Amino acid sequence: MSATYGLYVSKQTAIHRLHPLTKLTYVLTCLLIAWIVPGVWAPYIVLLVGIVPVALMAQVFPNVVQNTIKTTIPFAISLFIVQGLFWTGGTIIQQLGPFSLKEEGLLFAIRGTGRIIIAVSGFLLLSYATRSDELMLALSQKGLPSRISYVILSTLQIIPRFQHKANTILDAQRSRGLETEGSFLIRTRALLPLVFPLLLGSIVDIEERAIALEVRAFGRSGPKTSLLVLHDTNRQRLFRRLLILVSLGVIALRIYLWLAPRFAA
Amino acid sequence: MEKLKRDFNTIALAMIPIAIAINIAVGQIVKALRIPLYLDSIGTVFVGAVAGPWVGAVAGLLSNIVWAFIFGDVTNTVPYAPVAAAIGFLAGVFGKYGWFKSWWKAVLGGAITGVVASLLSAPITFYLFGGVVGTGMDVITAAFRSQGMSMLAANFLQGLATDPLDKAISFLVVYLIIRTLPDRYIDRFSRADDIR
Amino acid sequence: MISLSDVTYHYPRSDSPALSNLSLEIPAGQFCAVIGANGSGKSTLCSALAGFVPHFYRGKLTGSVEVAGIDTAGSSLAELAGTVGLVFANPFNQITGARFTVREEVAFGLENLGVPLAEMEPRIDEVLAFVRLTDLADQSPYALSGGQQQRLAIASVLVMRPKILVLDEPTSQLDPIGSKEVFAVLRDLAATDEATVVLAEQKLEWVATFADRVLGLHKGKLVADGPPAEVLSSLTLTKYGLEPTRYTQAARAAQAAGWRTDETTLPVTLEQAVEFFR
User: Fold this and answer.
1) What range does the domain containing C171 cover?
2) Which regions in chain A score pLDDT beneath 50?
3) Which chains have 3 or more CB–CB distances shorter than 8 Å to chain C?
4) What phi and psi values does residue C18 have, to the nearest 5 degrees?
């Protein structure tokens, strides 16, 4: 059931079959290039060349687009207003009443929006096409402590139950006469009778869950094995190394560009 | 080192997922009640208070990461993970010095934590997002900017408008929970003596 | 297999002992039920056998608890994990949450023990068949009913091949169907003589059908010890806050009216009652 896998959208594409680390490295490299390479349009190029084709191949393009637009629009609006209109100094390209639209602010907003789009769409692409338990396993094999992996995965699975619990408490309190609509004071007073039962009830569970973990030898030190098996290929390993080289190259380029004028003087 | 190992015992590990789930559930209740606060770190503060600063920091960090995985929102979450970690860490520090033993110290600790949170969030908002958070709060930032203030300062002040109050209330709620919990449950936590 | 020697235990900040001068021996392969009213020490005994008393609950433990030759007080919980398995009442809290399918959930303990993959898979299949969850192997543990989740908990512990299995009121939070499912598994477990099982339980009728031996606890002391027919039909049950089964009660009423007054062992189960009233 997709809910337990987080954002994962189950499909049978070549992208889905890739090793989680390949997808992670790829997305991080795209992110790095989009953010570090100078120029207003760099993020958009990375988007078109790097993100869009992969999203299409993974058949998650509509999901990515929809969610990216939803998340990015508030930022875009804020950026264009705050930076476009309130840029200190700079060349005015349009007067709008008491406010003036500055060219530098506009370009900043365009680049800023692009960077956010890359971050969001890259992350979504990764999440839609990768199972979180496989990603955690891949990271564990690279050294991520199994305790962290346990925490992340079990949190993902208990959150829907918690929201259900919260709704149950909300209904129960409402049926006992709790007012949740009305003035600010009324709504604030509703907060404690809703939050408290949720918190106190959960704390009791912590003890039992800890006991269950101990029973299953979770506290044992020593190497752990895994029922789940990830499939990796030499090509992917090579590709990942290539991506890392590209990333290092981009960083080196940026440092060079930053240092060069200082040494020219 | 020994104390650290004791802090990260199985109880702490079992606690963190529940704390994160509480962060999310309470944050959503607050949104549903349309209260202009976040209150999305109550779980983190609790973990910091009862299991120590380092566990609190881990709880805050992971909370933000998981939030991104659950809601598909990577912008309001992952970049601010260090801030969430700091909140958990500070809750642990205040807990260590017994500030959860009295309600006004808890509130004060929360307010201070809120100020620190604003201080840490501002550069993140500035450098990563060009100074905006994508909500109505940006109007405040715009207003400060129109007065000639630097973007960074504007971000900081925008945070100050909500963070100290938000965290003060969160710390107070955690104080009340600790008071209400039967002793046998408090005993279970590694920092029990600091908070009772 | 299990040996308690003059065990007394106080929970932290508690003046009255939860266990008081408890001494008993349970041989390998025995299915031992522990009965007692609430607060009699059943849960504490279960926790002590698995080592959670004293390692988890702290408090003061005197005397020795030895399981499969290991002294619980001297070993860590991690060391005891492969030897003693514990199942408790709440099925939901026994799901780790870190695995997305029933099969993987069962594997969790084996992964922590470092069991190689080739050995894991047949063991998991075997235990899933035993608890009758094979059809649900690819489902999410959270999609299961209470009884199914509790059987999953039992499977997850059994797969680790513990020498001793302790169950602390495993059916108290289940509906009648779930309880029946779990008891069916326990009955199968009792039939195999390999498992040493300690079952704390309130449902006396079930206990009677497959326990080899019944221990009665009252205020932390051992007050009864014998075969089910003897202990469960005893008149002293009510003194210790327990209700005899309805079969026993019916038989007692019949005896008071003159039926088979010479019979000293009263029925505890349905089959025995049928025999008694023949």
Assistant:
1) 1-83+162-228
2) 1-3
3) A, B
4) -85, -30
